[in-house]
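PROTEIN SPECIFICATION:
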Amino acid sequence: MVNEVQGIGIPTSHTSVQTTPTKEISRTNTINTVDESKTTIDPDQYKPKLELLSERLNEEMKRIGTDINFSYNDTIKGLVVSVKDANGDKVIREIPSKEAVELMQRMRDVIGIIFDKRG
């Protein structure tokens, strides 16, 4: 049977729908164990590579005449980018910011107090 939706003029169809029972599918959960000693990354092993990378990037930045400086930060164990003004006197922006670096250090200190790394 076809009817119109009231006032709009859109034909609608009313048909009976038959449903058939469905089978319940059982799911099995598989737990994969991962050796965490193989998946953790030791940031100290990348320090020489990151320092070399920062030196190369700084050479390229000098070559193209920009005041962007890359350096390795022991606190965050990663690269820091400093953008200076045209005179090279004032730092316009640091990525991550000094506040973010300090926050990361404080969070690591708190985590070190809460969790024993030996466990």
